[in-house]
Amino acid sequence: MLNEERLFPPDKEFSKRAHIKSLAQYRKIYKESIESPEVFWDKQARNELVWSQPWKKTLQWKAPNAKWFVGGKLNVSVNCLDRYLDTATANKAALIWEGEPATNGTPGEERVLTYRQLHREVCLFANVLKKRGITKGDRVLIYLPMVPEAAIAMLACARIGAVHSVVFGGFSAQSVADRVFDSGAKAIITADGGFRRGSVVPLKQNVDDALVIKGADKKLLTATIESVIVLQRCGNQISMKANRDFWWHDEIKTVSPVCPPEPMDSEAPLFILYTSGSTGKPKGILHTTGGYLLYAKMTTRYVFDLQDNDVYWCTADVGWVTGHSYVVYGPLANGATSLIYEGAPNWPEPDRFWNIIARHRVSILYTAPTAIRAFMKWGIEWPKKHDLSSLRLLGTVGEPINPEAWIWYHTVIGGKRCPIVDTWWQTETGGIMITPMPGATPTTPGSATLPFFGILPEVVDEQGNAVEKNSGGKLVVRKPWPGMLRGIWGDPQRFQDVYWSEVKGSYFTGDGSRQDKNGYFWIVGRIDDVLNVAGHRIGTAEVESALVSNQNVAEAAVVGRPDDLKGQALVAFVTLKSGIKASPELMVELRNHVGKEIGPVAKPDDIRFAESLPKTRSGKIMRRLLKQVASGLEIKGDTTTLEDFAVLAQLTKTDE
Ligand code: PRX
Fold it and tell me: What pTM did the predictor assign?
């Protein structure tokens, strides 16, 4: 419920120059956007984007398939770069990059790329891709650290109409191979390594390992890969295979800096981004060109109230959707300055973020609640050492923010003067869906507040009917919007089943929510078998299948338990094959095994060995019971003691 005492009205000074100045103004535009969506979006697309061919129809909608700006043509890189070349923005910083500082305290390298410089780099690299035989529609995997080349590679793909799929640098060789296999990618762009807390993440080695992985049919998963382009970042020893592997720096010397942009159909695929679901392997979420870019651009400008002189920093990695929409496409489409940092928030000291903010005079900071909770734990002395007066707006994303963290962020980092935008959205939605408008929406800690223009979310019951105010239910979106996913790569049936079958004709988010009497949304979290660990989305099924692929494991069930820092932690209940003994060593082996199969982010926090898993009469694992055990009961110190669920199972009558 909205608690008046904890309601933070918009700051008057902020509102004066904000894009949206009052709640009444927000409500008026929102009403128009919902009552006449096609008129609204048509106008926005005309005003915001540069098109090489106008569209014939604003929206063609037959659930679950949407086509926006049908027949229109445009190029994303033109909208992010070329359009600014004849303006004052040409010489403005597009990207400010900072590398990870060295262990000895030497500051990280710095690079600034103006819009003109970025344009040149993108054109050069686009020509490299062409030289390597990449053409319109081809898929390209990008597996890079947080360096400007990640953005350059994405934009270069967009320039020639190739479809990029960025793989987070923390994912394993197996994950790279799975994504190549699913997308049919022709090339991989990677680096010799990436720096992380003073050590080198062996990205190229992982790619080499991925390129020899075979599937169940004994065929290479990655047979479609023709070339690997390697950025020199760390200078570590790597092997280069002749006629397959090419150095980025050698390649760009051989091509022209002139690269005409490919005019792309508004609905042409722009990128595929893999994300976890409640079943099977991660699914390739497909986003297309015109609608996605329009939505990323508009949400960036309104939600962060972007002004010309802002230094905007979204701390997400480009391997996640937040990095796509709010590090690269949204800010650049607006001609903004986007800061990129390569390293960790506590390297070499826990004041890394505050040091960067003070030196670059960052005015907008967008980060995750997990990071905020870690900052709280590290202590107020770290931010206090730095001048944070340049900040004027703060944002959070990825998981529910607990009121304590919100208040700390507001007070300690924002000096009580910065509005906080708690933004709810998903990989699938392309951009921010529920959020305050800074300068207009009174905020309250823990609520993402109200929908963005054109978005019609609703909380519904099992039958799909709207529930009463203040009652919990499933969060759905009733109307199509330009940034929505267009499908799951290669799997239209799964697209229909996962998102459009739960509540007919509406998009099902997988989240639970409630609306208070003022219409504010409070996101409760996932109601499917997807966990949110430190803002990272992890499917329990994926971790379970990684565990059972270990030779010692018979069965595994993975559930979440609340965690003060990470929001949720992963707990795996494991039964072992006969003759295998539980041991602390095996626990380490299993954690590493999951790390190898998926990546370090998916390593279970706890592994608990059990004699057998509690099951319903129909043989389904009783997850609810396991969740209770995972969060309630103390973990036994002696890891070799097997948990006996027989008694517990008898106590519970619910058949899940
Ligand atoms: O459960 C919601 C949570 O993160 C999920 C989406 O994860 P992903 O696709 O990885 O995208 C994360 C970045 C957009 C959602 O289903 N989530 C995201 N933002 C919030 C949130 N939960 C509560 N409050 C938020 N602001």
Answer: 0.94
